[in-house]
Design a protein that fits this description.
- This protein has 189 residues and is of the alpha/beta class.
- 22% of the residues lie in helices and 25% in strands.
- It has a single domain, classed as 3 Solenoid (UDP N-Acetylglucosamine Acyltransferase, domain 1), CATH 2.160.10.10.
- Strands 2-5-8-13-16-18-19 form a seven-stranded mixed β-sheet. It has a five-stranded parallel β-sheet with strand order 1-4-7-12-15, with helices on one face. A five-stranded parallel β-sheet has the order 3-6-9-14-17, with no helix packed on it.
- A hairpin with a 4-residue loop joins strand 18 and strand 19.
- The longest helix has 18 residues.
């Protein structure tokens, strides 16, 4: 069994400690404006009028740091959401991410000699959430997923495949519940 240092190498180990230090500093940012400014200084691209609430976590910073985080204008990230930055996460404009939602960009079952590696090899893929999307509380968005514009992801949903634009999507496994236009028709009756 390889040691952790041999598995990742000295350069990644240093990067891990450096980015862990940045993550600790981030926890001291008590106002949303401070958080956004700090993340921008660390390499994230964040648009104007974006709110990042308290307790939002960023994991796997040792890959590319905060450079893998791209957030548009007028976005709202709720308390305790988690972003896995092993690969890029891109949020368009007017995107909301609900409480304790997870956006995952990679899979790794363990060390290179883990018995499951041959069945589930390590990989990472970006996540793209387009303009006007709301991801409800307690959702999981898996690696490689794109969520189309103006879609509503219902609370406690698993998004493991691409979601088209203008739909209400939910469940485990997630599926299209109805088109957004159908929701407007129901409300008007």
């Amino acid at each position: 069994m390889p040691s952790p240092l041999k598995e990742i190498g000295l350069k990644k180990a240093f990067k891990y400690f450096y980015t862990t230090f940045l993550a600790i500093l981030y926890k001291f940012m008590i106002f949303p404006q401070m958080r956004v400014a700090f993340l921008r200084l660390c390499g994230a691209r964040i648009g104007n009028n974006t709110i990042i609430c308290d307790g939002v976590r960023f994991n796997n910073l040792h890959w590319n740091g905060f450079k893998n985080l791209i957030i548009g204008n007028y976005c709202w990230i709720a308390e305790e959401a988690m972003f896995d930055l092993a690969d890029k996460i891109t949020l368009g404009n007017y995107v909301g991410v609900g409480w304790r939602s997870l956006i995952i960009t990679h899979l790794n079952v363990g060390y290179s000699d883990h018995p499951l590696q041959k069945h589930f090899p390590s990989h990472h893929k970006p996540v793209v959430i387009l303009d006007g999307v709301f991801v409800g509380p307690y959702c999981v968005v898996s690696d490689g997923v794109t969520i189309g514009e103006r879609s509503y992801i219902m609370p406690q949903s698993l998004v493991a495949r691409n979601v088209p634009s203008d739909v209400m999507y939910g469940g485990i496994p997630g599926k299209i519940v109805r088109k957004i236009d159908e929701v407007k028709d129901i409300e008007s009756k």
